[in-house]
């Protein structure tokens, strides 16, 4: 099943070539890391996925990753969006390389999917074939162990996670209890790549079922 994709937009980007030591201390970055790359994006889970990909393409760590309350529709300003991500690295070239990976994921690889024509109802069902050090740590798995990253509105998320677990040989490693900061819910499931793909498909179908028959039980 393929639904219409909803791609995120990167709203703002800045590089700090030589971060002030006091800010570096607050962000708890490595002493060897002197540079930062910051961005905001209007779909938070896409931003998380992009940050993780950056850790595989450059000598960078995720220094900060935070969703904003109630999501992009209630952003604090035109450049705020739904999420801020900060990469740290030893020099400007490394964090710029990391941002290149972020842009590639956001613009071409990871996306939400529209459940209705107005695109006001959506889900995120994305297989991370070989997670980097950020999502691996979040899920508590070894780097490179496949993940199904599943997100939907609250009830749909819980119902969909249960369906995905029963439909495929996967393990729920991280459960994002609804409501999250953006009033969604979901989780990270791990297994083989084929099992993760099957989990994503089951999740989509379950969320679609709720959308089509929301009060029938």
From TrEMBL:
CDD domains the record matches: BMC_EutL_repeat2
Domain BMC circularly permuted: 109-217
Location of the protein in the cell: Bacterial microcompartment
Keyword Glycoprotein: no
Lineage: Bacteria, Bacillati, Bacillota, Bacilli, Bacillales
Chief localization: other
Organism superkingdom: Bacteria
GO molecular function: structural molecule activity
InterPro entries from the UniProt entry: BMC_CP, BMC_dom, CcmK-like_sf, EutL, EutL_PduB
Record's protein name: Microcompartment protein EutL
Keywords: Bacterial microcompartment
Keyword ATP-binding: no
GO cellular component term, pick one: bacterial microcompartment
